[in-house]
Every structure is written in C-alpha cells, then in structure tokens.
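A protein record pairs a chain with a discrete description of its three-dimensional fold. The following entry can be read in just this way:
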Amino acid sequence: MAGDVAYERRNFDPLFQSFEKLLKPHGETWLSEPGRIIAKPFFEGMRERGWKKRVLNQREGLTLYGFKR
C-alpha cells in the first residue's frame, strides 16, 4: 500500500521493480493518487507490465486504486 508516490517519473522504474519483486503472482498493490497529470504515464506503465487497475474508493479529490495481475 502506498500513497502519493507517482509524482516523479524517476520513481516509476523503482516502483515497478518493487511490485515485481515483493508481490506474489496474484498479489495486489493499492495506490492513492490525487489526479496529477504525471500519474497518467505511470498508470500506462503499469498496464504495459500487465497490471489491471480498478478504483477502490474516491473521496475528496483522492482516488484509491488497486492493481492486480
């Protein structure tokens, strides 16, 4: 579970690598995001790596996403 981590492109690859290494094959990670434009390429990178995104909750301008393969 992480919050507010997809705000700098230089963090994307370390996050992708962490998810690959730390999560079991059917594991899930949760990320919150306030709708920054920079998050779009992060989400695209997750999709390209086989992660499926779903909205878990939305509240006060913040969205909680679940990513699972």
Q: What stands out?
A: The chain has one domain: 2-68. The two ends are 16 Å apart (CA to CA).
